Amino acid sequence: MSTATALSKTNPPVTCGECPIRHRAVCSGCDQDELAVLDGLKSYKTYAKGETIIWAENALTHLSTVVTGVASLNRTLEDGRCQIVGVLLPSDFIGRPGRSAVAHDVVAATEVTLCRFEKKIFEGLLAKSPAIMARLLSKTSDDLDAARDWMLLLGRKSAREKVAGFLSMLVRRAIQQNGMPAEDGATIALPLSRSDLANYIGLTLETTSRQFSQLKRDGVITLPSQRDVHIPNLANLFKEAAEPDRV
Amino acid sequence: MSTATALSKTNPPVTCGECPIRHRAVCSGCDQDELAVLDGLKSYKTYAKGETIIWAENALTHLSTVVTGVASLNRTLEDGRCQIVGVLLPSDFIGRPGRSAVAHDVVAATEVTLCRFEKKIFEGLLAKSPAIMARLLSKTSDDLDAARDWMLLLGRKSAREKVAGFLSMLVRRAIQQNGMPAEDGATIALPLSRSDLANYIGLTLETTSRQFSQLKRDGVITLPSQRDVHIPNLANLFKEAAEPDRV
DNA sequence: CGCACATTTGATCCTGGTCAAAAGGCGTGG
DNA sequence: CCACGCCTTTTGACCAGGATCAAATGTGCG
Question: Measuring from the CA of residue B157 to each C1', which nucleotide is nearest?
Answer without folding.
Answer: C15
